Amino acid sequence: MTTVALIAAVWLIVAWALAVRVGHALRRRSAAVPYAAFHSVPDGTRYLACHNAGVCGHMQTPHAPAGPGLWRCTTDGCGHITKGD
């Protein structure tokens, strides 16, 4: 290896190391992600498919007992009643 190639290789390594160090120092930190809010679930709650497509979109949502064999969706703005076991 010639002297010029050796000097070029050393400069390339130094430039790469400097770019890595400066890059870490200048990189912006992302904002902290807020934690999800958890709410207490009433006793007897079951997760059933809610058939209100407008609010729950047929997803599994918490349903509270609403009478014998009936369950009420507890999702905000829904309140759909469904039959259950």
In words, what does this structure look like?
This protein has a domain at 46-83. Helix content is 28%, strand content 22%. The protein is built from 1 helix and 4 strands; from the N terminus they run αββββ. The model has no long low-confidence stretch (mean pLDDT 83).
Number of helical elements = 1
The percent of residues in helical segments reads 25-40%
Question: Span from first to last CA?
Answer: 82 Å
Low-confidence stretches: none
Overall pLDDT metric? 83
Biggest sheet: strands, sense, closure?
4 strands, antiparallel
Q: Report the sheet-strand fraction.
A: 15-25%
Number of strands: 4
Compute the CA-based radius of gyration.
30 Å
From the helix content, strand content and strand pairing, which structural class follows?
Answer: alpha+beta
Shape, please? rod-shaped
What topology, given as strand order, has the largest sheet? 1-2-3-4
Order of helices and strands: HEEEE
Summarize the structure.
This protein is α+β, with helices and mostly antiparallel strands and 85 residues long. Helix content is 28%, strand content 22%. It has a 4-stranded antiparallel beta sheet, with no helix packed on it.
Outline the fold blueprint.
Blueprint: H1 3-26, E1 46-49, E2 60-67, E3 70-73, E4 81-83
Antiparallel strand pairs: 1-2, 2-3, 3-4
Task: Offer a few descriptive terms.
rod-shaped, 85 residues, alpha+beta, 4-stranded antiparallel beta sheet, 22% strand, 1 helix
